[in-house]
Structures are given as structure tokens and as C-alpha cells.
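Entry 14. Ran structure prediction on the chain below.
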Amino acid sequence: MTTTEAVPRTVRPITEIGADCSALARGAAILGTGGGGDPYIGRLLAEAAVRAHGPVSVVQVEDLPDDAVVLNVAMIGAPTVMVEKLPSGAQFAEAIRNLATHLGVTPTHVACIEVGGVNSTSPIVAAAELGLPLIDGDGMGRAFPEVQMVLPTLSGISATPMALADEKGNTAVFSTVDNRWAERLARTATVEMGCSAITAQYAMSGAEIKESYVRGSLSLSVALGEALVAARAANEDPVAAVTAVLGGTIVFEGKVADVERKTVTGFARGTARITGSGSDTGLEAVLRFQNEHLLVEVAGSVRTTAPDLIVTLDAETGEPITTEGLRFGARVRVVTAPADERWHTPAGLALAGPRYFGYDTRAVRHDGTVSEGEHA
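Output, C-alpha cells:
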């Protein structure tokens, strides 16, 4: 999607989030590319908030007043930690209040900085408690592991002042010289806070949201979740249904043969090896991840890299599998899909391309072609 594109023609824009967030959570887990945190936990938090405070209205990016005051809220840290260390619902709204007080502003809208995983549903919790509308968009169109890896960074928008809070009541506010320093300081603090925390960041005007955001992210999440469930109900292939909505490609099918995973400097880093089945019998795929899947190799050759989406789905049910959920013996299919075109500019690749993450390879799109940004 581009800045001029609202919601894809095949996706129905949502206007409200009610007490059933199952479709949104499923779709957001798909867009999370393996990261973003456990979608089930995020769903439970969001549904509890809506039951307590009422439905959350959803506003399209193009309908925002230019002078709107928009604050983002998200979890930061290693997704593996959240399996045992659950946030409280009140933390998300409190992070917004802390940042608003520091800035001396009254927020008019809440937004997602990333649509992947729990960070698509945690803003619902804040919006419900604060009685504010939620924007149908996000800052990247997927999930990425670092604070500066958002399209607003490409537009020169600052991540700070940034509020950070843990479950023990510790809070901090950072002001940094650039967004990479925001990542460095916030990550260090997050490690000391137990490797996961809540952050409010990227305060923006409505005009800045229109310039820098991916439009229709929440609506796309709902469409993905609904397509998956509808395909299963009709005894059709749910993986194919999800792939069609994404405009993506199924690149491998097989059984997880090995997973190496560890939490380092606040990230879940690792590798998964998949032994091929079906048409991929005799081949091996390798997934490399840092919170999110960043590179997939098939038969020893790079097939797709970040910034395009790499998603692992259960081969039979189509349910998304997070990097912390990958297990030996699981039968999966790997789907790749296009990212927002701004990620394929030279600046976008410098921010979130494979070389940034330490992989010595050119950026490869979901269809196996080299990104145009490599040639610019």
C-alpha cells in the first residue's frame, strides 16, 4: 500500500471494534511476521477493555483533522518474555497519560505504531479506557524489532519524547537526538525492566499521520482473520485464502526439524530449519529471525528478505505461528508477501533491509526478485 491508497479494494473498512477481537488478532498475528507478541494475550486484553469501557470507534487516516493530536502506545521487548510476564490493561492508558502530561497536550486519537501481533490490540486497550478513537493505520504495515524501524522515521518524525513504564511502577521519559538513539536507550531500559515494557511514543499531528502512515492496517487484519476462518468453514485451503488477501506467495511447505532460539539484548533471536514435504520433498528451508522473520532460504538460496513479509502458518489450519511458538515437528507453510513500497527505497532498505540486521545479501522481494532500492 502507498500513501495515496486508503484500504485495498478487496478490504472493507471497519468503523468500530467491539467485544470480539478474534479476527483482528488473527490477522495482526499474520502481519506480525512471527513477532509482535502473543496475539491471544493481546486479544484477551482488548476484549476485556471493550467489555469494561464500551466499543472503540475507528477513524480512517484520510478523515483525520490535520491538527489532531495522535499518540502511539505499544509493548517493547522480547516476545518470548510476554509468555510468562503479562502486562496489566491499565499500563497502556497510563503510558499515554504520562506522555501527554510530559508534552502538555490533550490527545485526540490513539494509534498503532506497528500492526503486528499484540501491538495491534494494545492500543485498543488504551483507546477504550481513555474514550478516544483509534486510527485505522500503522507505522510500518507489519512488525519490526526496533523502535526506529517505522515509516515516520523516513518522514523525519521523532520517536521522542518517549514514555516507558514497567509493571512495577517504574517510569522514564527519553528525549533523544535521533530515533536510533531512542531505540538504544529504550532497549537498555527495557532489559533492566525485565525485557518487556510499555511505551508511548511518536506523538504526531493528523497531517503527519497522513504523510507517513500505512492506511487500513486494522481493516486488513480483520479481513485476513475472517478469510482464514471462512476458508476453514467451507473446507477450503485457509493458507491459500490468507495468501490471496495478502497478495503473496506460498514459498515452502514442510515440517520443523530444528529451532534454535535465545533472548539476547532484549530480542528473541534464532533460526528454524524446515524439512520439505509435498512438492518441496527433499529440500530444506531456513528461517532466520530477530523477534520477526527477516530472511528465508530455500535449498541454500535466499528466497525472501525483510522488508517484505515472511509468515509461518500451520499447514492445515492456517493459524499464524509466532517465532516463540515454532516447535519441532510442526507442519508449516511459509508465505511471503509485499511490504509497503516505501520500504523498498534506498532509505527504507537502509533502515530495515537485510544488511542492517547483519545478513550479507541484497533485499529480495516476496516474488524472488531483487528490490529496486538496491539499484537506486
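The CA atoms of residues 262 and 269 lie 6 Å apart. Will compare against last week's run tomorrow.
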